[in-house]
Inverse folding.
C-alpha cells in the first residue's frame, strides 16, 4: 500500500533567504521578550516572599521603652547587694522567693502555691491544715501532686509580679538598627503629648527586646502581652496536625489506591473523580460549617469523649481538638487523594504487568511493587496538604477553637487553640505590643511549616534512595 | 480451582488430527503436532465492540518454540496476552472461544487468572525489572506464590533461575544491587530469570529482543534454545530472521480491513517454521516473508 505524496506547489512558499533573516531576528526578539516576562514573574514572586518575611521579622524584634513597677536594681539593692555586680538572675532561690513574698498579696501567693508549690518539704503561703484539707478533698489542687517550682519559674514570677515591666512604646527592627535615636525622640515626644499617663520620663528604660524568644515559645497565653506566650497554641496545632494526618493520610491513600488500581471506568467513577477535584476547591469555611454541624453537634457524644468515659465526660461539648482535627482532615482529604492518585499513576504500568504476569494478586502487586515506588510522591503530597491545614483559621473558628486558653491540650477531647487563631486574636487587640507578639507567633508558625516541609523532603529522599 | 495436571498424559495421546489447523483455502497440510500444552480453539478477542482478532486456532506443542509473526496491528500480541489472561487487565477486553491449558479452558468461570499467570509466565517487550535488588527480582515471584523453602533453598532457586537465564556468572557478586544497574540485555535476561523462577510450564515472550542490540539479541536467542528443553515457549516477533532462527513452528497473522475501516487480525497460516519460510501455503504469507508486504 503506498500513499501518493502531495504535489509540491510550483511557487516556492518558503521565504527567501533575506526574508528569513528578517523573520529570524523577529522570532529571536519575541523569544527574549517571553524569557524576560517569565523572569519578571519570578521576580514578583520572590519580592512578595521577601516582603512577607521582612514584615514579620521587622515586627518580631526591636527597641522597646519599658517602665518597671519596681526596678530590678532596687530589688537587688533592697537585699543589701551591689546592683552593679549582681542582677536578678544571680539571686538564690530563697532570695527570689523572699522578693516574691514581699511583693505579692498572700491571696495571690496561695493561688500560686496551689498551682505548684515552692518547696517540696514546706509551705510558704498556705497553712498546713488547710493544705491537707485541700489535698484530701475529692478534687485536690495540682500543687498536691506536682513537684516544686524551679529557679527559672520563680524568677519569671518575680519579673511578672514584682518587677511588672510595662512596655509603653515599641520600635520595629530596621529603624531600631538604623536610627535608635529616633525612638528616644519618639518616646520624649510621647511624654510631651501626655500619651503615657502617670509615668515619668525618668522611669523609662530603653532596651532591646526579641519578642520571638524561648520564653515566648514556652509560656502559656496571658492578658499581658509582655509575658504572653504561645505554648498552648503550638501544642494545640501539634495535636491538630497529628489528628489531621491520622485521618487524612490513611483514608486519602486508601481512596486513591481504589480509584487508580481497582476502579473500572464508569459514569459513577467519573462523577466521583470530578467531585474530588471540586471538593479540593471548596472554601475552608464551608468545611468549618460541616465540622460544626456534624462533628460538633451531631456527633457530640463521640467528639466530646462522652461515649468513651461514661459518667464523667472529658469535655462538656464537642468543641474539641478531635472535632477540629477531623474537620481539617476532611479539608485536606481531596488534596491528599489527588496527589496520591498522581503518584500512583506515575508508576509505570509495565511494573504492574510484570508483577501480575508472575502470578501476583492485585493486592500483592499494589503492596509490594506499586506502593513502594509511589510512596515518596504520596508522602510529599500528604505533608504539603497537611502543612496547608496548619495555617487554616476559618474552620477552626467555626468548630470552636478557644480564643483565650492557658491550659495545654491534654488529649483528643480537650479544648484547644491553635497558632493561627492566636495570631488572629492578638492582631485584633488595640495595644501595639500584641501586634508584636502576633508577628512573633507568625514567625513561629512559619518555622513550624518549615520543619514539616523539611520532614517531607527528608522522607522523600530516604524512600527514593531505597527504590 | 487448580488445574488437573494429570491430564497432561491424556493430552499426549490425543489424535494428531485434532490439532490440524485448516487455513481457509485448505492449501496446507497440518503440521504433525507433538504433545500440545496449550491450544487456542476458535478464539475471538474483543476490545469493547471492536473485534481485534477473529477465529484463531493454534496448538502449542510441548518443548517447542512457536513464533507468532505478522505485520503491525495484526493482533499477535493480543493473542499472546490472551494465553495467560493478561488481557483481563484491560477493562474492556473480552475473549470468546477457548484457550485450553492441558484439558481445561482457562477462560472458564471458576479459573483464577492468578493461577494461570503463575503457570504461564511472561517476558515483556521492554525489560521491566522491579526497582529492587537483583536477588529480590528473582525471589519475589517464588515468595508470593508460596515458596516453602528456607532461606538457603531460596538462594539455590535464585541461583538456578539466574543460571537458566545465563546471567548468574555476571551478577553472582552483586545480587544486592538494583536490577536497574544492569545493561538492557542483562535486564531482559533478569526478567527471563524472574519469569522462570516460579517454574511455569509455558513461557510467553512478547518481542523480547526489540529493545536490544544485535549481540544481546543473539544471547537471548541462544538462551531460548536451551530454555525450550524445560519450557514451552511462545514468542511474538517482528524479526522474521529471528522467527526463522529459533522457532519450530510459526503462525502467520495478517489483517482484514472491513468496509468501515475496522482492522481485524486473523490467522493466515500455521505450520512448521521451515515450511512457512520455504514453501508457504498462502500467497499472503509468501508476500510477507519475501518482504513484498507490510
Amino acid at each position: 500500500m503506498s500513499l501518493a505524496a502531495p504535489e509540491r506547489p510550483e511557487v516556492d512558499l518558503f521565504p527567501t533567504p533575506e526574508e528569513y533573516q528578517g523573520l529570524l531576528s523577529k522570532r529571536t526578539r519575541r523569544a527574549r521578550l517571553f524569557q524576560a516576562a517569565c523572569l519578571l514573574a519570578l521576580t514578583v514572586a520572590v519580592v512578595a516572599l521577601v516582603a512577607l518575611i521582612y514584615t514579620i521579622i521587622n515586627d518580631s524584634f526591636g527597641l522597646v521603652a519599658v517602665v518597671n513597677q519596681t526596678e530590678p536594681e532596687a530589688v537587688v539593692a533592697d537585699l543589701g547587694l551591689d546592683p552593679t555586680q549582681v542582677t536578678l538572675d544571680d539571686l538564690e532561690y530563697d532570695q527570689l522567693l523572699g522578693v516574691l513574698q514581699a511583693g505579692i498579696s498572700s491571696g495571690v501567693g496561695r493561688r500560686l502555691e496551689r498551682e505548684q508549690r515552692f518547696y517540696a518539704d514546706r509551705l510558704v503561703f498556705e497553712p498546713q491544715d488547710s493544705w491537707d484539707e485541700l489535698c484530701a478533698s475529692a478534687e485536690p489542687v495540682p500543687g498536691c501532686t506536682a513537684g516544686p517550682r524551679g529557679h527559672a519559674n520563680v524568677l519569671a514570677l518575680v519579673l511578672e509580679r514584682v518587677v511588672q515591666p510595662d512596655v509603653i512604646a515599641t520600635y520595629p527592627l530596621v529603624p531600631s538598627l538604623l536610627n535608635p535615636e529616633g525612638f528616644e525622640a519618639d518616646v520624649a515626644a510621647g511624654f510631651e503629648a501626655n500619651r503615657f499617663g502617670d509615668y515619668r520620663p525618668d522611669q523609662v528604660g530603653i532596651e532591646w527586646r526579641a519578642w520571638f524568644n524561648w520564653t515566648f515559645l514556652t509560656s502559656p497565653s496571658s492578658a499581658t502581652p509582655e509575658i504572653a506566650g504561645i505554648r498552648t497554641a503550638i501544642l494545640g496545632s501539634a495535636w491538630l496536625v497529628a489528628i489531621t494526618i491520622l485521618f487524612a493520610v490513611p483514608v486519602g491513600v486508601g481512596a486513591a489506591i481504589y480509584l487508580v488500581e481497582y476502579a473500572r471506568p464508569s459514569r459513577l467513577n467519573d462523577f466521583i473523580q470530578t467531585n474530588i477535584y471540586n471538593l479540593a476547591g471548596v472554601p475552608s469555611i464551608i468545611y468549618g460549617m460541616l465540622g460544626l454541624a456534624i462533628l460538633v453537634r451531631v456527633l457530640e457524644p463521640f467528639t466530646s469523649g462522652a461515649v468513651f468515659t461514661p459518667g464523667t465526660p472529658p469535655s462538656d461539648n464537642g468543641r474539641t481538638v478531635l472535632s477540629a482535627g477531623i474537620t481539617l482532615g476532611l479539608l485536606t482529604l481531596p488534596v491528599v487523594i489527588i496527589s496520591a492518585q498522581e503518584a500512583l499513576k506515575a508508576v509505570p504500568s509495565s511494573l504492574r504487568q510484570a508483577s501480575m504476569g508472575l502470578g501476583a494478586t492485585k493486592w500483592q502487586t499494589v503492596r509490594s511493587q506499586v506502593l513502594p515506588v509511589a510512596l515518596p510522591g504520596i508522602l510529599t503530597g500528604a505533608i504539603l496538604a497537611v502543612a496547608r491545614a496548619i495555617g487554616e483559621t476559618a474552620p477552626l473558628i467555626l468548630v470552636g477553637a478557644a480564643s483565650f486558653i492557658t491550659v495545654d491540650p491534654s488529649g483528643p477531647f480537650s479544648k484547644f487553640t491553635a497558632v493561627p487563631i492566636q495570631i488572629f486574636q492578638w492582631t485584633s487587640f488595640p495595644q501595639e505590643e500584641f501586634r508584636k507578639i502576633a508577628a512573633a507567633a507568625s514567625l513561629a508558625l512559619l518555622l513550624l511549616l518549615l520543619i514539616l516541609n523539611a520532614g517531607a523532603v527528608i522522607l522523600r529522599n530516604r524512600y527514593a534512595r531505597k527504590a | 480451582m487448580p488445574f488437573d495436571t494429570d491430564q497432561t498424559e491424556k493430552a499426549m495421546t490425543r489424535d494428531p488430527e485434532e490439532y490440524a489447523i485448516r487455513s481457509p483455502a485448505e492449501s496446507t497440510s497440518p503440521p504433525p503436532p507433538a504433545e500440545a500444552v496449550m491450544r487456542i480453539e476458535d478464539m475471538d478477542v474483543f476490545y469493547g465492540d471492536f473485534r481485534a482478532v477473529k477465529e484463531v486456532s493454534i496448538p502449542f506443542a510441548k518443548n517447542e518454540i512457536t513464533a507468532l509473526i505478522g505485520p503491525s496491528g495484526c493482533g499477535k500480541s493480543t493473542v499472546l496476552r490472551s494465553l495467560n489472561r493478561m488481557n483481563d487487565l484491560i477493562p474492556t477486553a473480552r475473549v470468546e472461544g477457548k484457550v485450553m491449558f492441558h484439558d481445561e479452558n482457562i477462560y472458564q468461570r471458576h479459573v483464577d487468572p492468578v493461577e494461570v499467570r503463575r503457570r504461564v509466565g511472561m517476558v515483556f517487550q521492554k525489560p521491566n525489572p522491579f526497582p529492587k535488588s537483583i536477588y529480590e527480582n528473582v525471589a519475589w515471584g517464588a515468595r508470593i506464590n508460596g515458596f516453602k523453602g528456607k532461606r538457603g533453598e531460596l538462594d539455590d532457586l535464585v541461583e538456578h533461575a539466574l543460571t537458566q537465564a545465563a546471567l548468574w556468572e555476571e551478577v553472582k557478586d552483586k545480587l544486592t544491587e538494583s536490577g536497574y544497574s544492569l545493561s538492557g540485555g542483562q535486564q531482559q535476561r533478569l526478567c527471563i530469570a524472574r519469569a522462570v523462577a516460579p517454574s511455569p510450564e509455558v513461557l510467553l515472550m512478547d518481542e523480547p529482543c526489540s529493545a536490544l542490540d544485535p549481540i544481546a539479541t543473539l544471547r537471548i536467542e541462544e538462551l531460548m534454545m536451551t530454555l525450550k528443553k524445560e519450557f514451552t515457549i511462545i514468542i511474538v516477533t517482528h524479526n522474521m530472521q529471528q522467527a526463522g532462527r529459533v522457532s519450530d513452528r510459526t503462525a502467520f497473522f495478517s489483517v482484514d480491513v472491513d468496509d468501515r475501516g475496522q482492522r481485524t487480525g486473523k490467522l493466515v497460516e500455521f505450520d512448521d517454521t521451515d515450511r512457512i519460510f520455504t514453501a508457504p501455503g498462502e500467497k499472503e504469507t509468501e508476500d510477507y516473508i519475501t518482504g513484498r508486504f507490510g
The two ends of chain A are 48 Å apart (CA to CA). The mean pLDDT of chain A is 87.
